[in-house]
Amino acid sequence: MCLRTCDMKRFAKQGLSVLLVLALSALVFVPAFAAADDPADPSPIIYVIGRTPIYAKLGTPEEKETPDAERSEILDAVKAALPSLAKAILFGQWDAYADKAYSMIMPFFEDFGLDEEGRVTNGSGVKYTWSEATLSKNYKSTNPYTYHFEYDSRLSPLEIADQLNDYVEAVKRVTGKNKVALIGRCLGANVALSYVCKYQRPRGYDGLDAFVFYDQSVSGIEVLETAFSGSVKIDPVSAGVFLGGFELTTGNAVLDQIIPLTFTMLRDTYGIEITAKLIQNIYDHIRNTAILRFIRSTFGSCPGYWSMVNDGFEEAKAYLYGAPEDAKTYKALLEKIDAYRETVQLQCEDVIAEMKAARISVAAVCKYGFAAYPLSEEARFLSDGVTGLRKQSFGATVSETDATLSSSAIAAADPAYLSPDRQIDAGTALLKDTTWYIKNYKHNSFWNSLHPLLCAVCRVPGFNVNSDPAYPQFLMMESGEQYNVFPMTEENCDPNGAIVRDGDTAVKKTFFTRLRALFAFFGNVLRVLVKR
């Protein structure tokens, strides 16, 4: 069939009209899309916190935080259990000691554990509440905590994801924005990622602008992994480092000076090794009795804490719930644990890749500089005191806490990703260009000086470790009234990574210097006593 000339002209006009409409539409809609990447008109940031305090007997006159105990109560419990411990060591009466230890410690965890299905049935819970009416409309605030989400950390992150979705939608309604940026801190990263997997992944991440893993525990926390799997091995080397930085105040000026000096001497002699072997011996004898019962009754009953177990996950399930009858008794709990692992934890790297492909900013902010609990050889390596830096950073190569990387590791590293303290090769991390490392920053510390970095990562398109000289890849947190964060340089770090400042008493001393200090201290005490 032939087209007449007039028909061709008509179709041409129609075609030009369509093109004109499309062009005008582009002029209208392109700015709207660009606005999502405009720091002057950002998406609201929702900060998903780590742990919220749990209260037993919530809403009653007997309400109290759990687990919770005064130091005097703990000391009393320890003293009460000592006779049973002595009999166990001397005469092998370990079952009696296990029963005694369990009965002494459990009152401190009253109503903390969940039931056999991983549900709250004992009236415990969190005090956090929110309503849409109370949400701020100031989504441009430079405080990333303006919209913060709290939850019961014992529950499965997949259950909490439903609550977070309600919160996200409310924030979007209040602000009139279609997207949000998420910051997930510690366990909050597990919750935020569960929300993403459940509500954003099926939609192609269309409601998300940025995702920040802050001190994340999706990759696991060593202290939980070893405890849940019954694989605690008291490591003398990490125990020495841990005690060297241990902060213990008794309120007694004399003891507060003696304790750190004594710890140092123990660390630098055979004292730590002997003590570690003694503690290991006690643990091994009650591993399958008091320890197992305690974990199963408390943290092991909580899907939320299971979400922070990665390495040794199957071993942990076998240790805590491997008896034949457990498969039926704890069926619902085990299903919750497995569901999170399969749909979130094991999908993490795939989800990160998908978010990046969808042009969503994905970053990690990590902390280190404090010794981990010495429950395995992994505790020798850099940590924020709770979470190991290798896990936080999704795979960075890191040194032991009180050392540098080996000479071969330093030589193999790309200088652009080597930390000035020679303790980190960031080039091996999953997000090597959008992962920041902050030294001397504890796991449970939160300072406003980090807010500009968190906001920039969430709001500035393409923001990375080379974008702002004030926020390079390697930073340090300085203790003081302001707790400032500042760039790490070779000038402010010694070869072992300790901060060097004039008059800084935190710089490491040798064993003999500590020994002389201890004797000098005792000498001063004796002189005071003689004068009296």
Widest beta sheet: strand line-up: 4-1-5-6-7-10-11-12
Low-confidence stretches: 1-37, 497-519, 521-532
Distance between the termini: 122 Å
Order of SSEs: HEEEHHEHEHEHHHHHHHHHEHEHEEHEEH
What portion of residues belong to β-strands?
5-15%
Structural class: alpha/beta
Report on the architecture of this protein.
This protein is of the alpha/beta class and about 525 residues long. It has helices spanning about 5-35, 70-90, 95-105, 155-175, 185-200, 220-230, 235-245, 255-270, 270-295, 305, 315-320, 325-330, 330-345, 350-355, 390, 405-410, 450-460, 510-530, and strands at about 45-50, 55, 65, 145-150, 180-185, 210-215, 360-370, 395-400, 425, 435-440, 475, 485. Helix 3 (about 95-105) crosses helix 9, helix 7 packs antiparallel against helix 8 and helix 7 crosses helix 9 (about 270-295). The model is unreliable at about 1-35, about 495-520 and about 520-530 (pLDDT under 50).
Itemize the secondary structure elements and their pairings.
Layout: H1 5-35, E1 45-48, E2 54-56, E3 64-66, H2 71-91, H3 94-105, E4 147-149, H4 157-175, E5 180-185, H5 187-200, E6 208-214, H6 222-229, H7 236-244, H8 253-268, H9 271-297, H10 303-306, H11 313-321, H12 326-329, H13 331-343, H14 348-357, E7 361-368, H15 389-392, E8 397-398, H16 407-412, E9 424-425, E10 435-439, H17 451-459, E11 474-477, E12 485-487, H18 511-531
Parallel strand pairs: 1-4, 1-5, 5-6, 6-7, 7-10, 10-11
Antiparallel strand pairs: 2-3, 8-9, 11-12
Helix pairs in contact: 2-3, 3-9, 4-5, 6-11, 7-8, 7-9, 8-18
